[in-house]
Amino acid sequence: MLQMTPPPLETAPLEPVSMTSLDKQAPDKKAPDTATAVTAKSGSTFYWPMRLLPASKRAAMFAIYAFCRCIDDIADEPGEPAAKRAALDAWRRDIRDLYIGGAPNGPLTAALKGAIERYSLPRAELEALIDGMAMDVAGEESGSGGMQAPDLDTLRLYCRRVAGAVGMLAIRVFDRADPATERFALALGEALQLTNILRDLAEDAELGRLYLPRELLLAAGIDGNDPDAVLAHPALPRACEALAALAETRFAEARSAIAGQARGSLWAATAMMVLYHRLLKRLRAAGWRDLTARVRVGRRESAWVAVRCMLGIPPAA
Ligand SMILES: CC(C)=CCC/C(C)=C/CC/C(C)=C/COP(=O)(O)OP(=O)(O)O
């Protein structure tokens, strides 16, 4: 087996970035561009697979990622639901304008425009992302925190929008949009989002959210949708295991959709798959008892997995 040392992590200090005013910042030639700064500052598990891509693909993925962060923050940060919906609608207008030839209104929309034009990104997928974030806002006026024990179909729709759409955009950046790669992108998007949901149960409960689907809760003997009550229920591990099993199924579907065909820049998607599959395995091993325990994939590990995948020697999940 080839032995390698993980690459040094990027340590250059980055200026804090205000997520709500991204597109109002004046350009600064010395600072990293906005999409790069947002992505680097995020500490994302997926930073290194994106960072190691060739420059134009990296720029496109950073633009997509920064857009996701921006609309996600609109849904997550404190604020009135009506104001959040208005902010998401403003993004809908910005996206529409980019597709009908309008000028970008700031650095992030400029980065998105570059990615859209270079990789023919479908407008419907960018709009699907906004629709997905809006699902986190809907219902807040009635005192609920948006998603609370949705039915399985609603959860899958949510995953399709907030993660499947990223996959459908990413495969175009990776120059692969054939049906098998689309199946891969959708299965992987769902696998990643379900894993993310299982890791962030406690954090989401603080926002009044509970993404565990009603059917799996009921099958485990949990009847209710109050996040704190459900997370304290003794049968919670059964529901989590059932959702983890569903995530495993999606990982397996993703792997088989591109078996032997992970050519070109699709290595970056393979790295994302390995990283989050490792995370899922660690969550299952931890056993869903202490939801505040930090189960994660570190940045060094993320860089190492990304380098291995880039070199065509992906490590085991
Ligand atoms: C073909 C292809 C590339 C498919 C995958 C699509 C994809 C990357 C979907 C994103 C799903 C997800 C859980 C994002 C969380 O990112 P985060 O940065 O918040 O994650 P973190 O909290 O673990 O850092």
UniProtKB/TrEMBL annotation:
EC number: 2.5.1.103
PROSITE patterns, per the entry: SQUALEN_PHYTOEN_SYN_2
Classification via Pfam families: SQS_PSY
Keywords: Transferase
Pro residues bias locations: 1-10
Region feature Disordered, mapped onto this chain: 1-33
GO molecular function, a single term: geranylgeranyl diphosphate synthase activity
NCBIfam families hit by this protein: HpnD
Protein name: Presqualene diphosphate synthase HpnD
Organism: Azospirillum lipoferum
Gene: hpnD
